[in-house]
Amino acid sequence: xxxxxxxxxxxxxxxxxxxxxxxxxxxxxxxxxxxxxxxxxxxxxxxxxxxxxxxxxxxxxxxxxxxxxxxxxxxxxxxxxxxxxxxxxxxxxxxxxxxxxxxxxxxxxxxxxxxxxxxxxxxxxxxxxxxxxxxxxxxxxxxxxxxxxxxxxxxxxxxxxxxxxxxxxxxxxxxxxxxxxxxxxxxxxxxxxxxxxxxxxxxx
Length: 204
Hints:
By secondary structure, the protein is an alpha/beta fold. α2 runs parallel beside α3. The relative contact order is 0.15.
């Protein structure tokens, strides 16, 4: 009888101990989650108000300055880290951006047309095109040459160029190629400016 009582007490005590441990663990996790979620992103030198002019574009690809400027502004508008203004005089600092280079290279994986009556002899069709973009960012004190932060970002993405698949087609679709390239560049602008924003507010 005494043995059964001891075993019952042990089982009850063991269950209670497990419950206490789980409760303590959940409290710790909740506390950590709260601390993480309550972290406020800040810019270097506690800059709170910035002005971002249209990016410069010194690459060979026209119109990219709009993509990258808008992508970066969206990151700031979705964050509480900083307030954006449309005039430099109202800001604490100015964030300048430059699209420096755009490299477009056809990958080596290609299809070579041989012994076919549909394509010219020795025609080579590239199966993948790689786009690499380099962007420079600089956060500068308003009305000053003081640079608070600067960084360079370089990233690549592939897209599939137009393919000659039908006997009646003897040239690539230039409109498709342009559309695919621009869409890839727009996606790159979103990914790169998200990374730039994260690096900027974390002061890395």
